[in-house]
Write a structure and sequence with these properties.
about 425 residues, single chain, Rossmann fold, 7-stranded parallel sheet, alpha/beta, 14 strands
Length: about 425
């Protein structure tokens, strides 16, 4: 634990040094100032002792935890719930989330902070989402005999549990009362580690995207924009993704005049939107910004420069090109597939079980070059049967894999 604790201290020092120059680091540091006094005051005034505590790293993990939070609150409306985030990008967007009683930053994982946090809150139980293995918190929860759960997790052979230096992380796995996994392979790996508390539940994200799909935001202007067109929705794109899709769009547009493009970049700050706008202008492509908000969008390209719309915009698409596959990893492919959109993405998808599965179903397609992207899009545009089959397979895939939320909440009931 000495090296782990030293790493935590070094991480905090690094963020403090970076905070004057990095906005996210600044939010991380500022959000934890005087945390103990502020947290104790809120817990006391809101009567949050013995709340159910959920912890998520950031927005992606929150989307996995969210169906469980909302079902738990629906079935136990009097139960207090506290939600913590590690990342500012999660906290800042969800700090007013209405289904919990308090949203806060998780203090850094030191022995002192873990003891203070848990002494103030005295949670009834603790629920961590996917990959959260904060050792001091987990060992302190164990010492205090607080039931602790891990949901929607996936184990892989490359993780620290299977390394020579992973002894404390292996020990941490044994602090959970139940580990709800996404797949059977994770159960098998837990058994290799002599951990018998694994339960196959599935991925709660399937339930979340079905929830969104059941009542999506209606955006009249985009509905008009998409009508009678073949619409490619580019979701959470990075620069390389945009280079590829714009080249393909130019190659396909003359042959297929009904083709339209909606680009929702991963980063929507002014600098990135200006870069994308310049790229489109350089290629002599007319476009609208979503924020222009005209009565109708007359051009064939729409750039979404706003947060919170992408999951609903997919309902107006024909196919989706998911960003991140030429960077650190693809973004959410379930949000479009729930609407029956075949998905295309770059080669960096190996951390995501759903990507392998959707490829095997032939509802997802890996793209390594502009030529491959253009060829696959051309098939989907011209071959109505291929498009229809891929669409049905995508939607059915989500439906068949739903239900994890019910399994998790049923398992928590004896502790509530």
């Amino acid at each position: 634990m000495f090296l782990y604790n030293l790493g935590i201290q070094a991480f905090q020092i690094g963020l403090k040094l970076a905070s004057p120059f990095n906005p996210k680091a600044k939010l991380w540091v500022e959000g934890r100032k005087n945390w103990e006094v502020n947290f104790e005051s809120k817990v006391s005034s809101l009567q949050l002792k013995h709340a159910v505590w959920f912890h998520c790293a950031s927005l992606g993990e929150f989307e996995q935890g969210r169906p469980v939070i909302e079902k738990l609150k629906k079935e136990y409306p009097q139960q207090k719930v506290v939600l913590t985030f590690f990342s500012p990008s999660g906290y800042e967007i969800q700090k007013d989330y209405p289904y919990v009683d308090l949203v806060a930053y998780l203090p850094a994982d030191t022995v002192k902070n873990a003891n203070a946090f848990l002494s103030i809150l005295k949670p009834k139980l603790a629920i961590f989402v996917k990959y959260e293995f904060w050792l001091n918190y987990l060992f302190t929860l164990e010492k205090k005999h607080i039931p602790t759960f891990l949901i929607s997790t996936v184990l892989k052979k490359h993780q620290s549990f299977f390394k020579w230096y992973g002894g404390n992380f292996r020990r941490a796995l044994k602090t959970y009362n139940t580990i709800y996994t996404q797949d059977v392979h994770s159960i098998k790996l837990l058994r290799v580690l002599k951990v018998s508390t694994g339960v196959l539940a599935g991925d709660t994200r399937f339930d979340r995207v079905l929830q969104i799909c059941s009542a999506p935001k209606k955006i009249r202007e985009i509905e008009e924009f998409a009508k009678d067109s073949f619409v490619i929705v580019v979701g959470s794109s990075w620069q390389k993704d945009e280079d590829y899709i714009i080249e393909s769009y130019i190659a396909l547009k003359q042959k297929h005049p009904q083709l339209k493009l909606i680009i929702a970049p991963h980063e929507i700050d002014k600098k990135n939107i200006d870069r994308l706008s310049n790229l489109l202008t350089k290629n002599k492509l007319a476009f609208h910004l979503f924020s222009d908000n005209p009565p109708t969008y007359t051009d064939s390209i729409l750039v979404v420069n706003a947060i919170g719309f992408l999951s609903s915009i997919y309902q107006y698409g024909t196919v989706a090109f998911i960003g991140g596959g030429f960077a650190s990893g693809i973004h959410n492919i379930l949000e479009p597939t729930v609407y029956g959109l075949p998905v295309l993405f770059g080669p960096n998808y190996h951390k995501f079980n759903e990507a392998y599965q959707i490829i095997d179903l032939k509802a997802g397609f890996v793209i390594n070059s502009t030529e491959e992207l253009t060829k696959q899009l051309n098939v989907l545009i011209e071959d109505k049967n291929t498009l229809s089959e891929a669409s049905a397979l995508a939607k059915n895939y989500v439906l068949k894999n739903s239900g994890a939320t019910n399994k998790v909440v049923d398992g928590l009931k004896e502790f509530l």
